[in-house]
Amino acid sequence: MAFKNKLKKDLGLFDVFAISTGAMFSSGFFLLPGIASHYTGPSVFLAYLFAGILILPTMFSIAEISTALPRSGGAYFFLDRSLGPIMGTIGGLGTYFALMLKTAFAIIGIGAYAAIFWEVPTKIVAIVATFFFMILNLIGAKKTSAFQKVFVIFLLIILTTFIIDGFFSIFNTASINKESITSQFTPFFSDGIGGLFTTVGFVFVSYLGLTQIASIAEEIKNPERNIPLGMILSLVVTGLIYGLGVFLMIAVIEPTTLATDMAPAATAATQFFTWLPEKAGVLLMSIAALAAFASTGNAGLLSASRYPFAMGRDKLLPAIFSRIGRKGSPVIAIMFTTVLIILFILLLSEEGIVKLASTFQLLIFIFINFSVIVFRKSKIESYDPGYLSPLYPYMQVAGIVISFILIIYLGWMPILFTTGIVIMGLLWYHFHARGKVKREGAIFHWFALLGQNQDSELENELMTILKEKGLREGDPFDETVINSKISIYKQPVDFKDLLKKVSDNYSAALNLNYKGGIHKLIHFTPDESLISLPGVLVFHARLKEVLNPSMQIVISKNSIEGILPFDDDFDIKRPLHICVFLVNSDNYPKQQLRMLSRLLDILEREDVVKTLINMDSHREIKEYLLQNERFVSIKLKKGTPQSEMIGLQLKDTQLPSDVLVALIERNNKTFAPNGSTVLLKNDILTILGEVKSISKLYNTFMSYEIDD
Questions:
Q1: How far is it, in rounded angstroms, from Cα 333 to Cα 323?
Q2: Which among 64, 266, 339, 579 is placed 20 to 30 Å from 116, CA to CA?
């Protein structure tokens, strides 16, 4: 099966940081601190810092699963594929509601800050803004990564200035107002440690944006590095700004006033920015707040609407939710989500919205941490995260326990409401989706250790994801192709003779006993070691005796004759022209799967059999298998820029230091050169290296055609 319409991996580390950070800076900083201080008093700034620390286990779990399952749908997709469609339904609905509630709270912030300048009802402004965002989403308007980066830089500059100026103002006047400032922090815990824990759970919603990285994992370059590092940087920066910024609000706003203030950042700014014209600081903070709320509101509606869309596509919700409009947007899902957000704005208090959003999110965090344990215990080889959570499983257990404790401290009303959503999800799955969904989650593979059945569909899907992810940095696929042994048969060849020769080659090259390890490559169980494609047969095996991966390629101009003992049990797609053998060490099962996936991706190209059987050059065949942006082929011809290399030893050429001449074809024979190899006229060089250097070589040399 060919894979099309894959999303481009063009998001780097700063993109990850900007998307995560931008999604967190809105209501958490500009609206929530005053409401949150009602539960714990001046110690509310500690609640923000503790919440940032306590979210670490879940952040590590999200980072691991995101590098293993880079798919749209985020937490819903994780839970569905790990715990099964029942928990996927519950998790999808829980995340959906959490996102809608956070979005509703952010949009209310637009009304709260608009009221600073105009006498307008907060909730009416919020409803109008919601309809505006709905229209933007329906016509397909979306926030680009470039805009997000500019927005985050602007926001960080303003907030950093606010913090620096605020601390300067406080310490500059401390000798005069020392007693006044001290009184702002007394009593430090207005409701004891219990109040602090309640506040930690309450402000957890401020870090919800951290989970949005899961939805864009498919588009991130070098995800093993950029996802965890980007999330950690975002969490550190956001946590510090939350803690320091809220500390300043407490220092300058009277406690009873702060507890009811819907725009505490703007109120604090009235006592800072004295070096600017009057009210300029308030205006600046308000503009930043409105931009943050608008960005979060629009992106929140977009993200939330994708949950019913994804669940409709997976048959967990009615198919109508997966309908796409003329502009390419899920119209029904967007409109339905808009209606629910408006209902939350009208029916719930700001405090109620935050408590429900935090409770739902904490419940999802419990499930996500448990999912990592399930995936690891399932022993599915194609579960191949590029980043592994540290301190497994203690980190995940800690994440589960922390989330559970914080849910308890949030009170019975949000717990009962969340329980109602869970029950609703169970009933909905039982009566609507149960007969329509056939897949099961990774947890069934864990149960398989106890004698239950596994779900082959999940393994196939994970293999599909593995193929789309491609090779990992350091996987020696190119080196294996370069060193592969190629046999081209122009006369008919018998299957058993072919296999005997391959076995002999492997036995000699790998120093293996024919009746020992390599014997397994030929006498195998077909469903474990053989893949049949039209005209192609792929043998793959992992052997303890092998240290490094090895490949042999057999190409027959005529159809390969004869049968194998397993022909009756396995569907070989004849006529058969190509056999590829890939052997790797038993110590690297996941590397073998990635290399096998890359090989299959190549062998599933259109007209691959016709292309390969028409090639007589080993170099051409290997270059066809390499075919990527990390190599270039150059022919040394007189009258071209590369003619300067003719007569030089390879070590004396002026090639970039990060490239390697892997192959030379000379007089229709291909060999691997060394530093003392003298380059001759009409030599064809296959050069591997870093993308930038290869691109430079291509632009320098490839304006001249190569004559075969």
A1: 8
A2: 339
pLDDT higher than threshold 80 for residue 462: no
Between β-strands 536-543 and 578-585, what pairing exists: parallel, antiparallel or unpaired?
parallel
Provide the 10 A C-beta neighbour count for residue 233: 16
- Provide the mean pLDDT of the chain: 81
DSSP helix/strand/coil, 328: coil
3-state helix, strand, coil in the chain (%, to 5): 60, 10, 30
Three-class SS string for 332-375? HHHHHHHHHHHHHHHHCCHHHHHHHHHHHHHHHHHHHHHHHHHH
> Mean pLDDT across the stretch 25-47?
88
Average pLDDT value for residue range 323-328:
74
Per-residue buried b or exposed e for 329-345, using 16+ beta carbons within 10 Å of the residue's own CB: bbbbbbebbbebbbebb
Number of Cβ within 10 Å of residue 239's Cβ equals 20
Nearest to residue 555, comparing CAs of 625, 613, 618?
Answer: 613
Asked if 617 and 668 touch (Cβ cutoff 8 Å), the reply is: yes
Which is nearest to 286 in space by CA: 164, 113, 504? 113
Q: What pairing do the DSSP bridges indicate for beta strands 659-666 and 684-689?
A: antiparallel
**Residue 7 pLDDT exceeds 60:** no
- Two tokens at 512? 């293996």
Tens digits of per-residue pLDDT, 94-109? Answer: 778 888 888 888 888 8
Residue 489: its H or E element: strand 485-489
3-state secondary structure 180-206: HHHHHCCCCCCCHHHHHHHHHHHHHHH
Q: Which two tokens stand for residue 356?
A: 């429900």
Phi, psi of 438 (to 5 degrees): -105, -15
Fill in the amino acid letter for 606: E
Catalogue all structural domains in the chain, each as residue range(s) with its CATH number: 15-351 (1.20.1740.10), 470-620 (3.40.930.10), 629-701 (3.30.70.1450)
Measure CA of the first residue to CA of the last residue in the chain; give whole Å: 33
The whole-angstrom separation of Cα 574 and Cα 554 is 15
Higher-pLDDT residue of 61, 12: 61
- Sign of the dihedral defined by the CA atoms of residues 165, 280, 151, 304, in that order: positive
Q: In the structure, what pLDDT confidence band is assigned to residue 5 with cuts at 50, 70 and 90?
A: very low
Would you say residue 459 has pLDDT above 90?
A: no
Q: In the 3-class helix/strand/coil scheme, how is 515-565 assigned residue by residue?
A: CCCCHHHHCCCHHHHEEEECCEEEEEEEECCCCCCEEEEEEECCCCECCCC
- Which tokens is 509 given? 């090259």
| Nearest-angstrom CA–CA distance, 104 and 624 | 53
Q: What's the pLDDT score for residue 240? A: 93
What mean pLDDT is predicted for residues 510-530? 57
Q: Pairing relation of β-strands 578-585 and 684-689?
A: unpaired
d(CA 449, CA 378): 8
646: helix, coil or strand?
A: coil
Least confident of 85-99, 490-504, 597-611: 85-99
Question: Which H or E run contains 408?
Answer: helix 394-409
Task: Please state which of the ranges 365-369, 530-534, 612-616, 626-630 shows the lowest mean pLDDT.
Answer: 626-630
What mean pLDDT do residues 348-361 have? 82
Q: Which one, of 473, 471, 497, lies nearest residue 625 by Cα?
A: 471
- Calpha distance 128→107 (Å, rounded): 10
At 661, is the secondary structure helix, strand, or coil?
strand
